[in-house]
Fold this sequence. Notes:
The structure holds two protein chains of two kinds.
Chain A: E1 2-11, E2 19-29, E3 34-39, H1 45-53, E4 60-65, E5 68-69, H2 75-78, E6 82-85, H3 99-107, H4 121-134, H5 151-163, E7 169-173, H6 181-198, E8 201-205, H7 209-214, E9 218-223, E10 226-232, H8 233-237, H9 241-264
Parallel strand pairs in A: 3-8, 3-9, 6-7, 7-8
Antiparallel strand pairs in A: 1-2, 1-4, 4-5, 9-10
Chain B: H1 3-29, H2 37-53, H3 58-81, H4 87-106, E1 110-112, H5 121-124, H6 130-153, H7 156-166, H8 168-172, H9 178-204, E2 206-208, H10 215-230, H11 235-257, E3 260-261, E4 264-265, H12 271-291
Antiparallel strand pairs in B: 1-2, 3-4
Helix pairs in contact in B: 1-6, 1-9, 1-10, 1-11, 2-3, 2-4, 2-9, 3-4, 3-9, 6-11, 7-9, 10-11, 10-12, 11-12
Amino acid sequence: xxxxxQFTKYFHRDGVDQVLALDGIDLGVQKGDFISxxxxxxxxxxxxxxxxxxxxxxxxxxxxxxxxxxxxWPEHRRATFIGRVFQDPLMGTCGALTVxxxxxxAKRRGKRRGFALGVKKEDRQLFEDRLKELGLGxxxxxGDRVGLLSGGQRQALTMLxxxxxxxxxxxxxxxxAALDPKTARQILDLTRKIIDDRHLTTLMVTHNMRIAIxxxxxxxxxxxxxxxxxxxxxxxxxLTQEELVARFYDRQKKEDMxxxxxxxx
Amino acid sequence: xxxxxxxxxxxxxLVYGIMVLGVYLTFRVLDFPDLTVDGSLPLGAAVSxxxxxxxxxxxxxxxxxxxxxxxxxxxxxxxxxxxxxxxLLASILTMIAxxxxxxxxMDGPNVSLLGASTVLDPFMAAGTAGYVVAPVMYGLLAVLIxxxxxWFLHTELGQAMLAxxxxxxMIRSLGVNTHHIIIIGVGLSNALVxxxxxxxxxxxxxSDVNMGIGTIIAGLASVILGETVxxxxxxxxxxxxxxxxxxxxxxxxxxxLGLKLGNFAVTPSDLNLITALLVVLALxxxxxKRKFGGRAK
Lengths: 265, 297
């Protein structure tokens, strides 16, 4: 469904501190895939997700979506088929607006916004039902400003907002990293439930190897802007943490040796 | 303070209240500090005055002023969004450009409207005194426009505008082109400011290229004063609060102008200093309330 071809992204291009954040990534995502993405700091995980979402255009390469190159599409245009949840719980919701106003904004993702009232009466029931599924009591707080909610509640709301109109691709960028362990677990359970219920194609960045192993049908490891591991199918199902760590260090060593050799050679 | 001064302040507060609503739209809703208003207020005045002297109906002249103001706001927004010029600088550029444009429109630094017809004429004809008609008429208009803004901010588009000011990243990821929203919002804001300018010109009987100086400060002072005194929880409340803030601001100014301490009398040239003090006081108010045991919100 999505095909990345030689996706390349520099930061500070042509400057003294030029960084090659993504080094010609080739990646094919099938419909219904749930891919967890891991890698050390600066490996390019978030850059990859932001690149898909359209925060910037690729410096080189293509992003094919259903055969069309959407590399030059701006973020808001790609949002018609992409749902996003950010690491910072404050990022995905609007604190000055109420719970129902936020959901109403999300319900018009990718549609024209005109002079009809933002919050429609007929949507309230839908919002209440969806909020009830969260089990956080938010269904009784439709009129409360989101700024009054906790980080976990806001992140749960963001999950709902990203999926109230089922997106063709869901991007989760370390969406539980800023939460306490208990809340993080709740949000992960919610994530799994929503993705299973709605059969969403998902890319999830995480720092947590255990989560990456438990969730999804495919695991990708990035290192220095390249995909160094791509585990799927039966192999992914039987993957253990020890095995992953071992393979990680093995590959990383090879990669680093390669660069060292290139440098020294 | 005389009744005359109070009614005058009320009238001014209501007329300039329309401008204050415009400033609220940019400054608070869009989080876009916009100094264009110092130019778009006299722009509205100039367009309306010239149109009236050319025989256009006073009401129609206000519509023309609104269009001109919208265009001025669009220029600032385009400079900011498409050319990536900092919003503050973009608005200053439009503002100084408008100075020249306003003189071109009026073919001189001012246009007199003495004896010309104004929007108040149809009501004066009934024989009601001018000092009653003006505040009532401007009050009605200000309330109508406030209602319109409150309604607008509850529409899909208005909600997207509120979100654009609060969290642009989020609203982009929900498929909204924030550039379009900024262009519409800053345009709408300056349209309101121009309407206010047109009414001021008709009220004062003249349009002058320098009448816009200090508009943004008066606007900010009114917004901050209104929010501090009347509260800012929720869009509806804030819109009403800033309109009342405008009246309060003009009353405070009128009061200060009447102030005499021995040989010292406040003159109109002291207004800028008084405005600055008012803003500082209004900004300090929440802290003072807390300190003296009042239940601050």
